[in-house]
């Protein structure tokens, strides 16, 4: 399990574009602690794991690498984004999108980068993607 924790700490740290030192300051620990956690030579204690999961806005299950069910992901998604997805079709589409992101970490990373672009550039990229999908559907 420690390798999953190590991988996830590094993954979510990098996803936030934080250095080990920046994460250490946010957690009020030394940078060497972060290095040890990411190199699997140490595991954070429970209180620190809770702080890390809160800082990354993820569940402890996700931080320690426990596989999450689609239903849990959907409920968590609804909770975080205050969605009202009573429509069965909407729920299935969200589950498919989450599943796609779970299976394609590169896509997740790329979408994260997209979300950080200015709105005008986001709209341009989204329009390009819509055009590609429409063209694929025609073929």
UniProtKB/TrEMBL annotation:
<dbReference type="InterPro" id="IPR001387">
    <property type="entry name" value="Cro/C1-type_HTH"/>
</dbReference>
<dbReference type="GO" id="GO:0003677">
    <property type="term" value="F:DNA binding"/>
</dbReference>
<dbReference type="Pfam" id="PF01381">
    <property type="entry name" value="HTH_3"/>
</dbReference>
<feature type="domain" description="HTH cro/C1-type">
    <location>
        <begin position="9"/>
        <end position="63"/>
    </location>
</feature>
<protein>
    <submittedName>
        <fullName>DNA-binding transcriptional regulator, XRE-family HTH domain</fullName>
    </submittedName>
</protein>
<keyword id="KW-0238">DNA-binding</keyword>
<dbReference type="InterPro" id="IPR010982">
    <property type="entry name" value="Lambda_DNA-bd_dom_sf"/>
</dbReference>
